[in-house]
Amino acid sequence: MTNPGTQAAHSADRDLIGRLTFGTMAAQTLRAGVQLKVAELIGDTPRQATEVAADAGAHPQHMTRLLRALAALGLLRELAPGSFSLTGAGALLDAEHPDSLASFVRAFTDPTVVRAWEHLDGSVRTGEVAFDTVFGTDFFTHLAQHPELSAQFNAAMSQAVSETTAALPHAYDFGRFTTVTDIGGGDGTLLAGVLGAHPHLTGVVFDTTHGLDEAPDTLERHGLNDRCSLIAGDFFSSVPAGSDLYLLKSILHDWTDDQAVTILSHCREVLPPGGAVLIVEPVLPEAVAAHAEEADSLDSSITYLSDLNMLVNLGGKERTRDTFQDLCHRAGLTLTRVSPLTDAEPFFILEATAR
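RE: above sequence
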């Protein structure tokens, strides 16, 4: 006789495998909803699927099928047969929503990002970056060669940093510094949040020419043209001198350990007495189980999936505290603080000073 508990556990195991297997399809359903502007077309009031289809230039029956799939995923509600409204999560797919994640969805479901994942097994075997093999160049060079994709990626990074922008200015003592340089700061969203919360600070956004494309608009929108400047360059060659705080948000994980040491070393070279390097990245626990006990399986998996994304697309990785400490030591820095960034999981604040 089959033990009911064993049978239930077996069924749950099969369900888990099924959900994970269909994960790619769920992501592409999400992408289709964004591409067809479903959230914008539904708006604040319930609408019939036929109306949404007409406005989207889509087949009404097939649009109904898409909307029902989005409802099953928790992004819409089917209030009556064929009538749909947005959930709170679904509203974030509206490009005009103040907390929109539409560009984030577009970027991370784009074939350019997804294609390298088809070769994850090869990257695991060899350590080679699948993206470079598939496209014949590295990820950032590819972005520079495709302006539309570059703009989409920059917009995604701006949306992805929104929680950090809200949390970081109040989670770290910026009051003891005078000028902060955001290394690889992109469109300046994060630094604008820091400067807005700390009027005594001035700032510099340092990135490649393409990375800075949208930064002038950000500074103008936040009224920071007089307090913040833009400098284009390559952090593998040098970083600008003149600041007493150097901010690295989601930069080091893009690169190998040796490359990360190079970036940190350039920060160390220009760091004045009393200055600091502020790293904002996830910190992996020493074992998965220790992390999984503190969060549900989806939340706890995201950093590990990001780690694999670094492997196949960029060649970087997510790191443990000990690894960050080693990188800092090799760069002439001492890691003085590692603490969770409250309200912006899975990120941590890591502070390093000259040793």
